[in-house]
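Practice problem 4.
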C-alpha cells in the first residue's frame, strides 16, 4: 500500500482507548489537515465521519492492558503496510504499549515524542511522583502511602485530606475525607490495600491551575497554563511561577514529550504546588488546540526536524467550547456562519473547522447526542 495520501502527506496513527482522548486527537489532526488512522478499543465513536480519518482498527482491550506481544506485532505490521510515519499514543495504556514496541517499529516509523519507560512510570504513579518531588526539592502536598490499616494509624496527616489510588485517570477513585472517621471508613472499606495501596495527601485550600508542556529532553518548547472558569470556559493565563516550576521539573528529569501537570495555588501562602503528573495527552487538550497551541502538530513537526520554538507563541484569554452544541447546530447547517465576534483568530479557525458543512462534525454531534 502507498505510504502517502492523495495530497502527498504521510498518514499518522492515533492510538487511544479513552473516548475523549481519541476525539481530542482526531480533532487536533483535522485542524492541521493531517490524515490519520485510528486504533481504539472503544467501538461506536463517530469521529470516523471526518474526511481526514482514513480508517479505524479495533484492538482488544485486554491485549492492550497486557501490552500483548501479538498486539505489538500487529501494530508494527499495520504501520509498515500503511506507510505510517508517526505513531501517537493518547492515554496511559497506549503509551505503555508504544514504549514497549518502539524497538520493533519498522524503518521510517517513529513514536511521537515520549519519555523513557522508567520515567513514565515514575511520573504516572502518584506515590512515586510525590517521592520524586521530594527528591528534587520541588513543592507538593504532604503525602503518605497506605498499604494497610496500620499505615493510617501511624500517619500524621489529618483531615481534611485527599485519598486516591496510586494509579488512575480521569479522577476515578479520588475521595475527600473531612474527618478522621470518614478517612478510616474509606480505608477500612478496602480489602485489597496490599496489592492496590492508596495515596493520602493533605488538602491544600486554594484553586487549581494546570500546566501543559511539550518538552525536548529537558527543555520546554511549548506550553499552556489553564484554569477552569465559569460555565465551562477555559482560561489561559501567564504565570511565571507556574511555568518556572514546570520547567524545573522538566529540566531535572530530562523529560521528553507531552505532559499535563495538575497544580494548585495555596490560598494561605499564594505558593504553587504540584499535585499530579500525567506523562501523556490530557482530557482538555482541545482547548489548547482551539486557542492556538496544537501540541499534536507541534510534536510531529519536531520529529520532522522543524524548530517549533519559532512556531509556538504563548497564549492568554478565555475559550468556550467550540464544538457543535444544540445551540450552535443551526449555524453548522449553514456552514458555520456567522462566526461569533468574540473569538480570537485561532479560535475562529477552530470554529470554522467544527461548523463547516460536510466536515463530519454534524454527524459526530448527532450520533453522540442522539445515542
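Answer key:
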Amino acid at each position: 500500500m502507498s505510504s502517502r495520501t492523495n495530497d502527498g502527506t504521510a498518514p499518522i496513527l492515533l492510538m487511544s482507548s479513552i473516548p475523549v482522548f481519541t476525539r481530542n486527537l482526531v480533532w487536533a489532526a483535522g485542524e492541521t489537515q493531517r490524515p490519520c488512522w485510528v486504533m481504539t478499543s472503544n467501538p461506536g465513536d463517530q469521529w470516523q465521519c471526518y474526511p481526514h480519518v482514513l480508517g479505524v482498527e479495533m484492538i482488544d482491550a485486554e491485549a492492550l492492558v497486557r501490552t500483548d506481544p501479538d498486539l505489538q506485532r500487529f501494530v508494527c505490521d499495520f504501520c509498515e503496510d500503511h506507510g505510517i510515519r508517526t505513531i501517537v499514543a493518547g492515554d496511559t495504556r497506549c503509551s505503555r504499549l508504544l514504549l514497549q514496541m518502539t524497538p520493533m517499529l519498522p524503518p521510517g516509523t517513529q513514536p511521537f515524542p515520549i519519555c523513557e519507560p522508567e520515567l513514565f512510570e515514575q511520573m504516572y504513579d502518584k506515590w512515586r511522583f510525590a517521592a520524586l518531588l521530594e527528591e528534587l526539592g520541588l513543592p507538593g502536598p504532604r503525602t503518605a502511602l497506605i498499604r494497610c490499616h496500620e499505615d493510617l494509624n501511624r500517619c500524621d496527616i489529618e483531615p481534611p485530606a485527599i485519598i486516591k489510588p496510586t494509579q488512575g485517570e480521569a479522577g476515578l477513585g479520588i475521595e475527600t475525607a473531612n474527618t478522621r472517621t470518614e478517612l478510616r471508613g474509606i480505608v477500612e472499606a478496602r480489602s485489597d490495600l496490599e496489592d492496590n495501596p492508596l495515596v493520602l495527601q493533605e488538602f491544600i485550600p486554594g484553586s487549581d491551575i494546570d500546566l501543559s508542556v511539550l518538552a525536548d529532553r529537558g527543555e520546554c518548547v511549548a506550553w499552556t497554563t489553564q484554569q477552569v472558569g465559569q460555565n465551562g470556559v477555559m482560561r489561559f493565563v501567564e504565570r511565571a511561577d507556574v511555568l518556572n516550576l514546570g520547567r524545573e521539573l522538566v529540566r531535572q528529569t530530562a523529560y521528553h514529550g507531552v505532559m499535563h501537570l495538575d497544580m494548585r495555588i495555596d490560598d494561605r501562602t499564594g505558593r504553587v504546588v504540584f499535585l499530579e503528573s500525567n506523562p501523556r495527552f490530557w482530557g482538555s487538550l482541545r482547548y489548547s488546540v482551539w486557542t492556538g497551541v496544537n501540541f499534536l502538530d507541534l510534536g510531529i513537526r519536531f520529529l520532522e526536524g522543524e524548530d517549533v520554538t519559532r512556531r509556538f507563541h504563548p497564549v492568554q484569554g478565555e475559550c468556550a467550547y467550540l464544538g457543535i452544541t444544540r445551540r450552535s447546530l443551526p449555524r453548522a447547517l449553514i456552514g458555520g456562519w456567522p462566526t461569533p465576534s468574540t473569538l480570537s483568530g485561532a479560535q475562529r479557525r477552530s470554529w470554522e473547522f467544527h461548523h463547516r458543512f460536510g466536515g463530519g462534525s454534524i454527524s459526530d454531534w448527532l450520533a453522540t447526542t442522539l445515542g
